[in-house]
Write a structure and sequence with these properties.
Chain lengths: 137, 137
DNA sequence: CAGTATCCTCCCAGATACTG
DNA sequence: CAGTATCTGGGAGGATACTG
């Protein structure tokens, strides 16, 4: 059994009922836990520039293991964010590219990225201050 | 330990992206892994409505363990997103509230939430289709 | 009430080896 | 090249008990 995607919580289906608060938060959370893993955002952002083969993707990301890149891509493919195209040549060639859905994710993700950029020194300082006062005790 | 990684023979086709791009992605990713955990977003969104005590927060979230809520709040406090105020009464009372920084996070998070809401049935269908065709094999 | 402290379990990432 | 298969440890998160 692969630990990657098959037993991930199934939040999307549960988005039932209620413009209620919890339903909404649960949905937000499901997206965040989906793309909040170690490699998904990086992968999506790289694919945003255009289709890419497996190993090229691996090289460009840098320190991802083969296994994790595979799992990440499978997860993204499963959710319809990435399309996988196999060319049955020898050696085999597989292209990955964003679907329309995948592209639509860029906007909100970049919004979050902008927030991160605008505030990451404030966060760093808050963190340092917190650690300092915690260390004093 | 062993740096034995492939810094050997790197043709590097699209290397011009790596500097700025990776830094940016790393920052995005750090934020996502920070708030992408199981309870942070839920907590922030609840606190967005106003200050709240520990146990009330716990009740409203519902199925969070005491330990995890504590850890979540400590993490948010450490990053300067949440302010913790202790009233040394008996019994003790502790209020949690969003800082300005915490409030500023609402916008991009809600953007992502909106994306999730707009697309979650497409995702669910993609997922179902993927699982179906995977199950056939 | 608002936490610590401890234990425990299962999941997940990484490493490694093999394959069509 | 683009994957699977398998093993392993480390850590996230839950349960429980105790405390100021």
């Amino acid at each position: 059994m692969e630990p990657g995607y098959s037993n991930v919580t199934e939040p999307v289906e549960k988005a039932e009922v209620s413009g209620h608060f919890h339903g909404r938060c649960h949905t937000v959370n499901s997206v965040l836990t989906r793309i909040g893993d170690k490699w998904s955002v990086l992968t999506v952002m790289l694919l945003a520039e255009g289709p890419c083969r497996f190993n090229e993707l691996k090289r460009r990301i840098g320190d991802v293991s083969q296994r994790m890149l595979t799992l990440t891509l499978r997860g993204l493919e499963r959710d319809g964010l990435v399309k996988r195209t196999v060319y049955p040549t020898i050696p085999p060639r597989v292209d990955y590219e964003l679907t329309d859905l995948g592209h639509s994710l860029r906007q909100p993700v970049e919004a979050l990225g902008n927030w991160a950029f605008e505030h990451h020194d404030r966060i760093a300082k808050a963190r340092a201050a917190y650690d300092r006062s915690a260390g004093e005790i």
